[in-house]
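Long-time lurker, first post. I've been practising inverse folding by hand and with some scripts of my own, and I keep getting stuck on stretches where the structure tokens seem ambiguous. Below is the full token string for one chain I'm working on. Before anyone asks, I'm not after the true native sequence, just a reasonable design that respects the backbone. If someone could post their per-position residues I'd love to compare against what I wrote down in my notebook.
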């Protein structure tokens, strides 16, 4: 009997490697983006605040050119920083799509191979029942991933929501130097520029968090519709198992066939 791994076994190995790669990319982004973004927003905000202070101190019209240049620099820098941050967020969202697709495919392979469950596996979140029937016996590291159950008050903890809380404020924070500088460029005598910028930041952060959370829910809903554990997929799963077994027998016969001289 051949000991060579089957096609599905090789694919499952590649799925694990790609899964680790995507996780590594995500952690690198999480380590760099908040730090660099926070430093950039802090520097740009200080440029605008210092420029406003010098103008409010009674600078002459000829001396007001420098504050205007600082405000323009802060505005352009905030636009650039927002676009860079948005690009990274979009990249991470694509990363999430690939991440979810790998999990879905891995679950399917685990079900095709009838992997046994570990004792105490298939944990469920509070208020949900353990699945009954054959679906409850589907095992594997991806199939037995526990559902979300930890809460921080009304918030159900999860990777996607955590990413929204990280990237949402990062995107929204760029609005402070942008709005603040734009208002002072329009009218340097405005006294409510700072408070207006703070309000805009709050709205932008809330919208960004809501947008990212909505995108993640849409992706999850799409995979739930095509869930491999759905009883409606039983016929397709049986056909796939038969095809896999036939391919395995064919591969084995080819590997065991003697090579002619």
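-- Answer (accepted) --
I ran through it position by position. Result:
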């Amino acid at each position: 009997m051949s000991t060579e791994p089957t096609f599905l076994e090789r694919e499952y190995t590649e799925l694990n490697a790609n899964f680790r790669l995507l996780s590594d990319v995500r952690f690198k982004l999480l380590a760099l983006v908040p730090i660099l973004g926070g430093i950039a927003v802090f520097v740009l905000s200080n440029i605008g605040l210092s420029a406003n202070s010098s103008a409010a101190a009674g600078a002459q019209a000829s001396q007001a050119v420098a504050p205007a240049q600082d405000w323009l620099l802060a505005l352009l820098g905030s636009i650039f920083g927002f676009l860079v941050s948005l690009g990274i967020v979009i990249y991470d969202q694509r990363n999430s799509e690939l991440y979810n697709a790998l999990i879905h495919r891995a679950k399917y392979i685990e079900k095709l191979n009838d992997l046994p469950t570990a004792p105490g596996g298939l944990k469920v979140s509070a208020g949900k029942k353990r699945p009954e029937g054959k679906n409850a016996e589907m095992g594997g590291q991806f199939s037995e991933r526990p559902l979300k159950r930890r809460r921080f008050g009304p918030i159900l903890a999860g990777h996607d929501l955590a990413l929204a809380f990280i990237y949402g404020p990062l995107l929204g924070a760029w609005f402070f130097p942008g709005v603040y500088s734009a208002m002072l460029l329009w009218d340097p005598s405005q006294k409510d520029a700072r408070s207006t910028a703070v309000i805009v930041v709050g709205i932008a952060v809330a919208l960004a968090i809501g947008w990212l959370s909505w995108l993640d829910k849409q992706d999850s809903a799409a995979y739930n519709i095509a869930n491999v554990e759905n009883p409606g997929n039983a016929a397709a799963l049986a056909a796939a198992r038969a095809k896999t077994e036939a391919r395995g027998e064919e591969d084995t016969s080819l590997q065991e066939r003697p090579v002619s001289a």
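A couple of notes from the structure itself: Confidence is low (pLDDT under 50) at residues 59-63, 124-130, 251-261. The chain has one domain: 7-256. Happy to go over any region you disagree with.
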